[in-house]
């Protein structure tokens, strides 16, 4: 039974296609946004300022369209 179930697992090339990426966050300045690509799709990483974080925390989430 084990060989039969094992053959249903994805092969190495499929696993490699979804491999995680590593991004060094240290050089990103406060307020800066960078774009990296993962699986041919853009991923945006932003280093928010203290004001942006405070603004986000001060919003009452119950008043949002989709809380």
Supply the key terms.
two-stranded antiparallel sheet; 3 helices; alpha+beta; 67 residues
Give your account of this protein's structure:
With 67 residues, the chain is of the alpha+beta class. The chain has helices spanning 2-6, 12-17, 50-58, and strands at 33-38, 41-46. The chain has a two-stranded antiparallel ribbon with strand order 1-2. The mean pLDDT is 88.
Determine the strand fraction and express it as a percent band.
Answer: 15-25%
Helix percent reads 25-40%
Write down the oligomeric state.
Answer: single chain
Q: What is the topology, as strand order, of the major beta sheet?
A: 1-2
Low-confidence stretches: none
Q: What's the topology here?
A:
Layout lengths: L1 H5 L5 H6 L15 E6 L2 E6 L3 H9 L9
Antiparallel strand pairs: 1-2
In short:
This protein has helices spanning 2-6, 12-17, 50-58; strands at 33-38, 41-46. It is α+β, with helices and mostly antiparallel strands and 67 residues long.
